[in-house]
Amino acid sequence: MKPAMETAAEENTEQSQERKVNSRAEMEIGRYHWMYPSSKNHQYHPVPTLGDRASPLSSPGCFECCIKCLGGVPYASLVATILCFSGVALFCGCGHVALAGTVAILEQHFSTNASDHALLSEVIQLMQYVIYGIASFFFLYGIILLAEGFYTTSAVKELHGEFKTTACGRCISGMFVFLTYVLGVAWLGVFGFSAVPVFMFYNIWSTCEVIKSPQTNGTTGVEQICVDIRQYGIIPWNAFPGKICGSALENICNTNEFYMSYHLFIVACAGAGATVIALIHFLMILSSNWAYLKDASKMQAYQDIKAKEEQELQDIQSRSKEQLNSYT
Question: A GO molecular-function term, please (predicted)?
Fold first, then answer.
């Protein structure tokens, strides 16, 4: 009778301790969900035992692996990267060719003396070198942001087992948020600056359209319709001739250089606008990823503490069993 009573007492003690562990774990999980509502959808995946592990014959096939890989692709970052590359390519390529055409138009028609537009030529040459640097930098920066999107997506969705978030990863994500914000503000200025040559070429083109109109064509007032490029400040007031009127101005508008430069400046301005949109898109993505990483790190810390407490309770149970067995 005595051993049976002791065995029953042991079973009751184990059941009460297991109920305490389960109730305590449920209380902790409920308290965490109340403090962080965004973690309610998080699913806990228990570690499979040796008996639960699938055999090599039942391993997932090629289709399942492809679906898993596609699930880890950061589609938002991919779209933003493509848009950023397209915008920067349009701005740099079209802007470089348009600047060269602008210099040719000024040298041939508005400023025949090389010393009058020497400063402008140096500035345009410097801007062309800056365009090379912008293209190289944003090619590298876009790849880095896309890689960061892959890292964050894999870390949040836990697609690669032990691939988890770290303090260094969260710090890098925060740094990218700040850097993308600064670049977005800078590209807003570039977008506004790229609209200036479009405005200048539009004024010249609209003046040529007035000269070509039937109301003014063939009249004596055509030669009084002029464009003075000096008023825009790109060449000094003593530049000769500086002002083109009438049929000479119409001939400039009919040249291939003017037509190409005008439309290339429009495309370059559109490319700068697309880059601004891409950076804003990147900023939203990075901010969201940083918030997800922060929440995932809190969940990871909570799970570590919970696992440690459960291990301690199991150690206490094993020691209590050993002590009861020593008395019997």
Answer: structural constituent of myelin sheath
- Contact partners, residue 95, CB within 8 Å, separation at least 6: 127, 131, 194, 264, 265, 268, 271
pTM of the model: 0.68
For 175-201, how does the pLDDT look when each residue is reduced to its tens digit (9 = 90+)? 888 999 999 999 999 999 999 999 999
- Identify which has the larger pLDDT, 4 or 125: 125
Query: What does the DSSP 8-state code read for residue 110?
Result: I
User: Angle at Cα 114 formed by Cα 112 and Cα 117, nearest 5°?
Assistant: 95
CA distance 184 to 190: 10
Residue 207 token pair = 């003046």
* CA count, 13 A, side-chain hemisphere, 151: 16
Place of tokens 């090379």: 132
**Nearest CA-CA partner of 286 in 158, 163, 82, 142:** 142
Where would I find the H helices in the chain? 2-35, 62-71, 75-105, 118-157, 167-212, 246-253, 256-327
| Token representation of residue 224 | 């009084």
Cβ contact 181:309 at 8 Å: no
Amino acid 152 reads T
- Return the number of other C-beta atoms located less than 10 Å from residue 170's C-beta: 18
Measured over all CA atoms, what is the biggest interatomic distance in the chain, rounded to whole angstroms? Answer: 130
Token pair for 281? 């898109």
Residues 87, 268 contacting (CB under 8 angstroms): no
Is residue 152 exposed (0-12), middle (13-18) or buried (19+ Cβ within 10 Å)? buried
Residue 64's CB: how many other CB atoms inside 10 A? 10
Q: Tens digit of pLDDT for each residue in 94-117?
A: 999 999 999 889 888 888 888 878
Which residue matches tokens 């079209």? 94
Residue 60 DSSP one-character state = -
| Whether the bond into 37 is cis, omega within 30 of 0 | no
Domain boundaries, the chain: 73-303
